[in-house]
Amino acid sequence: MAVRREFRLTQVVSSIQLTVNGEPRRVHVDPDVPLLYVLRNELGLFGARYGCGTGSCGSCTVIVGGRAVRSCQLPAGMVSGPITTVESLGGNHPLQKALIDAQAGQCGYCLTGIVMSAKALLDADPRPTEAQMRDALDGNICRCGSQPRVLRALRAVVAAK
Ligand code: FES
Ligand code: FES
Fold first, then answer.
1. Whole-angstrom Cα distance, residue 13 to residue 107?
2. Which atom of ligand 2 is nearest to the CA of 145?
3. Would you say the pTM of this structure is higher than 0.70?
């Protein structure tokens, strides 16, 4: 049986207006391109990281419209709210300090996604329950096994509020 392969050489490029960390940003990309690639490749924001590319690890997490989202799974053309990335926190955010204090970073690859999931949780509810904290971080995988230290850090931030 003959197999016919077709290659499409055309690429759809759209002008997309985004709000990233409070700043208007316009990009010219294929609207199906994941937001993660736009952040990294078009806007030079490297905090969100590529881990699995399938929505399973959380290393690409950013906040869109107040919700923690997996940016590897969100097409740029479907973004419907302001985007907040870890770069907006600077480095002195209480969550970042608490993670350092708890020595939660081993290789550190997961941490930017974890920070953004935790921030989305605390933005919605500054005093979450233990179950809510665990649920919010459930989709963020740490291959170094730092989850207990991450939870300790989050508990410390909540207790200080
Ligand atoms: S890279 Fe997006 S969830 Fe893993
Ligand atoms: S600290 Fe290495 S993956 Fe989490």
1. 36
2. 4
3. yes
